[in-house]
Specification:
Rossmann fold, 2 domains
Length: 434
């Protein structure tokens, strides 16, 4: 979940004081968010037919899956037994009307307060485990009606990518501080026995640096700076680090952290697109950046890595993945995650990564560590921290709908990894010897 370096004017580095917004554009979604005006939810749908279909689908789902639906009068329905996740309807009519508007309606109804659950990750884990059963086969042909296509403005062009990054990573450094550990690392940790979240994040980074042979004198290029922890740890090993981002807020904090650590002279921190970079590097590192590139730009991403690696060099990539068939089913659709959390993104499959490498580069995967359960634990810790900081989030100016949206996003993601629907891999890429 690292900020992407995608989309600046070719061949230029961006001044840190320069706004990333173009003429007539909002400078950042953070301004609206801190004023408490975002997200603005659409009104519940008015189609009686769609509402009736949604009601029938939810009732059928409760009858087939190990969950229960709680009603305002205290009764419940469903085949879930004691301990099963319960979806509690606070406003059934608004809930069904929103669900009837499309797949984003389920999440939007939670954001609006139409329903709650004491076990959001458990509820989503059940849904993820039965993803192919949620909609009866005769109705699956209606998918195109309920899932809109991706908006053109969220494509990974110069302007689109710039907006996409701002809408998530430039929300507020103070907001991210409330739930991330002191390393400010926003990606899966890798836990060892007795590890705190901070130590597990350092362990994850150190493992990637070890796997790529990063050490004294290594010329390392990082694509996607985040808040700078990988760059700091690589520089502390004696590497010469160039790190790229287009998130102004992350650039500023990473710069301050490098200066505070006394490593600023070993870290070249640039507001620059990875496709603009020239040179030769012993190691290219990129942690959870590919997910926001967009499927049509995966060849550009891997070609850039191939071009920038020196002979004998290695790339260390950490990537969230999903099953290939599910990736194909979602690759062109605009889900609620795209609308509210990660505009323009797409999670790849391992097959998509290996096929893109084979078709567009000379690189191949030589090492693969899957660590999805470590991400589930990471997300659970983030969610606990964010819940404990609810008053502080509100004090920053973020609305109740925003806070519920983030709680849902973290729980939804945690369930994806716990159920195995999502995974995360540390990959090492090398050129095969000929």
């Amino acid at each position: 979940m690292t900020a992407q370096s995608t989309g600046r004017d070719a061949g230029t580095a961006v001044s840190p004081s320069r706004s990333l917004a173009g003429p007539g554009e909002s400078p950042s979604r953070s301004a609206a968010a801190t004023a408490g005006t975002w997200p603005r939810l659409p009104a519940p749908g008015t189609s009686r037919v769609r509402t009736a279909i949604a009601r029938a689908l939810i009732s059928a789902m409760a009858a087939r899956l190990p969950i229960r639906i709680g009603l305002p009068d205290g009764s419940s329905m469903g085949r879930g037994g004691p301990g099963a996740p319960v979806l509690v309807l606070n406003d059934p009519e608004a809930f069904y009307a929103r669900v009837g508007t499309g797949t984003a309606g389920f999440a939007e109804s939670y954001m609006a307060g139409d329903w709650d659950s004491a076990d959001l990750p458990g509820l989503f884990a059940v849904l993820a485990a039965h993803i192919t059963e949620l909609v009866p086969a005769p109705l699956r042909g209606l998918r195109r009606i309920y899932i809109p296509g991706r908006p053109a403005e969220e494509d990974g062009t110069v302007t689109g990518a710039r907006r996409n990054i701002e809408r998530h990573y430039d929300l507020s450094n103070d907001f991210f501080r409330l739930f991330l550990d002191p390393t400010m690392t926003y990606s899966s940790a890798y836990f060892g026995p007795g590890d705190t979240l901070e130590r597990a994040q350092q362990r994850k980074i150190d493992r990637l640096l070890d796997a790529t042979g990063t050490g004294q004198g290594t010329r390392l290029l990082e694509i996607g700076t985040g808040w700078g922890e990988l760059a700091l740890r690589a520089a502390a090993r004696g590497a010469e680090v160039t790190t790229l981002t287009i998130s102004t807020q992350q650039w500023e904090l990473a710069r301050d952290r490098a200066q505070a650590a006394g490593l600023a002279d070993r870290i070249d921190l640039q507001l620059r697109d990875y496709r603009e970079v020239r040179g030769s590097y012993d190691v290219v590192a990129s942690v959870e950046m590919i997910e926001a590139v967009g499927a049509s730009y995966w060849p550009d991403y891997f070609r850039a890595i191939d071009r920038l690696l020196a002979p004998g060099g290695r790339a260390g990539i950490q990537a969230i993945t999903m099953p290939h068939d599910r990736m194909l089913a979602t690759v062109n659709g605009q889900t609620w995650i795209h609308t509210y959390i990660f505009p323009g993104g797409q999670i790849p499959s391992i097959r998509a990564i290996t096929e893109t490498l084979a078709r567009h580069t000379s690189l191949r995967v030589t090492s693969d560590l899957a660590m999805g359960q470590h991400y589930a634990r990471t997300l659970a810790e983030w969610r606990t921290r964010l819940a404990a900081a609810e008053d502080d989030v509100a004090a920053l100016g973020f609305s109740r709908q925003f806070r519920r949206m983030w709680d849902l996003y973290l729980a939804y993601s945690q369930a994806g990894f716990e159920s195995g629907y999502l995974d995360v891999h540390q990959l090492v890429l090398e050129r095969p010897w000929r």
